[in-house]
């Protein structure tokens, strides 16, 4: 009796790590619905950004299709997807621009609005923002 209990305990013990690793194998990229879902958010985001009274001006000469494609690649890669972001690093991309903390926060608000509009669940919105938030160090040029 004791032996069989031990065997069961051993099996449960062995099974748990296997189950746990299967559960964590789903990336944020997968949870977001893959590249096309990310692209849909970014297309929406780029057009909202251009129309936003707080930051729209900064994007007046921007090629929206190109920016959306780069953002899609960037988020795809950052969330564990099979992409390779080939744009500039964040410091170089924003060098020479006047970007304040208020601009950064406005952009984050717009991104939340786009994720909301495209049906990204709140918990996943938070996960995406947590990946992007540390970039403020390289993006904000006016301290
Ligand atoms: C976490 C925040 C941000 C991320 C992840 C981000 C990401 C990017 C990326 C991937 C590019 C393209 C780089 C390339 O051309 O190779 C870019 C360009 C740009 N970003 Fe940001 N950005 C952020 C915040 C901001 C903010 C706050 C502003 C201003 C309000 C801004 C304004 C611009 C502009 C004007 C461009 C140039 C677009 C062009 O080529 O015309 N970005 N950004």
Strand tally = 0
Unreliable parts: 5-21
CATH architecture: Orthogonal Bundle
Number of domains: 1
Top CATH class: Mainly Alpha
Q: What is the fourth-level CATH superfamily?
A: Globins
Strand content: under 5%
Helix content, binned percent:
55-70%
Rg is 21 Å
Q: Could you report the average pLDDT, rounded to the nearest whole number?
A: 89
Q: Helix and strand string, N-terminal first? A: HHHHHHHH
**What is the count of helical runs?**
8
Give me the CATH fold name: Globin-like
The end-to-end distance, rounded to whole angstroms, is 69 Å
Largest sheet: none
How would you describe the shape? globular
Could you walk me through the main structural features you see in this protein, from its secondary elements to its overall organization?
The protein is mainly alpha-helical. The chain has a single domain (28-139), classed as Globins (Globin-like). It has 8 helices and no strands. The chain has helices spanning 2-24, 28-32, 35-51, 64-78, 90-94, 101-117, 122-132, 136-139. Helix 3 (35-51) crosses helix 4 (64-78). The termini are far apart. Bound molecules: protoporphyrin IX containing FE. Protoporphyrin IX containing FE binds at residues 55, 58-59, 61-62, 67, 70-71, 74, 87-88, 93-94, 97, 99, 103-104, 107, 132, 135, 139.
Quick overview:
The chain is mainly alpha-helical and about 140 residues long.
Identify the notable features of this structure and list them briefly.
binds protoporphyrin IX containing FE, Globin-like, 143 residues, 0% strand, mainly alpha
Topology, element by element:
Layout: H1 2-24, H2 28-32, H3 35-51, H4 64-78, H5 90-94, H6 101-117, H7 122-132, H8 136-139
């Amino acid at each position: 009796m004791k032996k069989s209990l031990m065997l069961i305990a051993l099996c449960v013990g062995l099974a748990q790590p296997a189950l746990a690793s299967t559960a964590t194998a789903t990336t944020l990229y997968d949870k977001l619905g893959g590249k096309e879902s990310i692209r849909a958010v970014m297309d929406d985001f780029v057009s909202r950004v251009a129309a936003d009274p707080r930051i729209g001006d900064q994007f007046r000469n921007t090629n929206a299709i190109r920016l959306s494609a780069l953002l899609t690649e960037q988020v795809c890669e950052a969330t564990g997807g099979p992409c390779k972001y080939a744009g500039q690093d964040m410091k170089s991309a924003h060098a020479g621009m006047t970007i304040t903390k208020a601009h950064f926060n406005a952009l984050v608000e717009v991104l939340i609005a786009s994720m909301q509009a495209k049906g990204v669940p709140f918990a996943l919105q938070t996960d995406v923002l947590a990946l992007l938030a540390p970039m403020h160090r390289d993006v904000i040029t006016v301290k």
